[in-house]
Amino acid sequence: MSDTVRNLQQTVDDVFDTDAAQAYFDAIIGDDSRIEPRDWMPDAYRKTLTRQVSQHAHSEIIGMQPEANWITRAPSLKRKAILMAKVQDEAGHGLYLYSAAETLGTPRDVLLEQLHTGKAKYSSIFNYPARSWADMGAIGWLVDGAAICNQVPLCRASYGPYGRAMVRICKEESFHQRQGWEILYELSHGTPAQKRMAQDAVNRFYGPALQMFGPPDDASPNSQQSMAWNIKRFSNDELRQRFVDMIVPQAEALELTLPDPDLAWNEERGHYDYGELDWDEFFGVIKGNGPCNAQRLARRVEAHENGAWVREAAREYARKQQAATAETAAVA
Ligand code: FAQ
């Protein structure tokens, strides 16, 4: 922490003054340091983080559905065990992220209510069906791959609890991506039918995976401010480009093709050019009109209702623990 930031913090601690608090906040951001839950922060910063972190949490738990769909049909016991562990990891990511979001002041039941009533978004990618076993490979390679590309820079997000949650999440996502790669590699080097199945999965997931990075920069209302606050470190298009550059050689190693006739190395830019994505489709999906939106939300609400007894039991257990602690304290 620089001397300027330390002095400003002293002013804020001595007498609360909004201008001094804003100056302290600006200095922390300018210093590329971290805002913690008890620090003062502008309402708009709190709101944007609550939006992004909670939507990220919603994506993790809705993202369990396409893969959970294949647990009972995994081709071997080993594949089943790996897939179960991955789906459990996604639930864990949801838990870290809901906890991080709650430190911003909105309780979890309110965040979940926003998801269940369609007020909050979750990643567009999870509104596409998982039709074959090869989709487990494509989700791991492309969806987790895109998630890592997007999320590694978030480990340096200016809000402490979010950045710290992202560190562990990224480590796990990296394992997920490799298991997806390995499924696709085996299929693409298997029988002709298996290779066709792998190619078909990549064909269906490629475009939606690129759209996970969000709309193009000129149609992204939140990016500029989020970057000024050091929440996002790169724009949507910058990260999408990074992802394309990463997966083209990987696809070659897999001996699979990416379904984009415009993909070509651009010597001048030092990057791969790629074709225009279907943004009408993307905006339709995030408005709730994707192939699986209704099914995903209905399943989520059903799971939440079925879990009511667990929440009730946890509350009762916590109440008994508190009562026991209070009794011990009273005796002592
Ligand atoms: N889907 O102004 P921007 C995963 C919305 S986790 C749906 O560019 P921003 C793990 C956006 O919210 C995947 N909505 O917004 C896994 C905004 O609407 P709002 C999730 C989208 O926030 C793997 C509006 O469009 N990852 O995959 C999408 O600056 C396998 C305008 O957009 C994260 O959440 C979209 N793709 O940038 C799990 C990462 N893109 O909120 C299971 C953290 C944009 O104003 C299996 N989030 N929108 O109503 C972020 O980095 C950012 O929030 C972006 C969007 C980049 C997603």
TrEMBL record:
**Recorded GO MF terms:** phenylacetyl-CoA 1,2-epoxidase activity
What is the name attached to this protein's record? 1,2-phenylacetyl-CoA epoxidase subunit A
Keywords, A to Z? Answer: Oxidoreductase
Q: What class of enzyme is it?
A: oxidoreductase
Any Pfam family the entry gives: PaaA_PaaC
Q: What is its EC number?
A: 1.14.13.149
Biological process GO annotation list?
phenylacetate catabolic process
Task: Tell me a GO cellular component.
Answer: cytosol
